[in-house]
């Protein structure tokens, strides 16, 4: 869906509120249907299944494809293959996101060198099914580089709840490893496409029809994605030191930013004009 938009400093770059469900160090990916140099040849790397997408990161710093992002709403024709000879693999088709550094469609073949293709593929299809139940199938918006600063992701981003999601538990026993703690980075921007619904809905129940899966993020005090984006834009206008506080629904006030300015920024984002003295 987007090319070279999901990596940073040798690790993976995810959105605020996005969680990594499964991770594997030992995969390879091959492409067909694209003539760009970045899609040529077999690429070895890591694969991440998140609440919103599949992400591939290359292990070679010289590869033209350093990362590739597959939001579930851009995938089709996904199948798990079990050949008589050779390793099992997942195949499918993905369509490009506008401004995603490539165009059109491409077919992929994802091979698991140390096993686990069946379990990973089933988990991937299960998450995609849960996401589709929300009823949101629109194409993703044009890709926009994150405007906020990057930071090391907190543990919930790569240590999902052991009880699983809505009556389903990912196959942690097959993929017990977690990404290195210094290899997961996050931005303040929420995902621009649907994913697993907020964790407030449990017990196997999905949100009511019409509830956008990406509308809120954990700890966002019920803010919509539009509110979060406006809040982030307001913080950016205050300068590089300002931060969004989604838990509080406001712009927190760094040194040098007056209370009146912070209050105005919160109000501009369409939120109550709450001001906090420090950033988290």
From TrEMBL:
Gene3D superfamilies: Pleckstrin-homology domain (PH domain)/Phosphotyrosine-binding domain (PTB). GO terms for cellular component: nucleus. Residues 41-129 form the GRAM domain. Pfam families: GRAM. Residues 198-222 have a biased composition (Low complexity). One of its GO terms (molecular function) is chromatin DNA binding. InterPro entries: GRAM (IPR004182), PH-like_dom_sf (IPR011993), WBP2-like (IPR044852). Residues 197-222 are annotated as: Disordered. This is GRAM domain-containing protein. It comes from Brassicogethes aeneus (Rape pollen beetle).
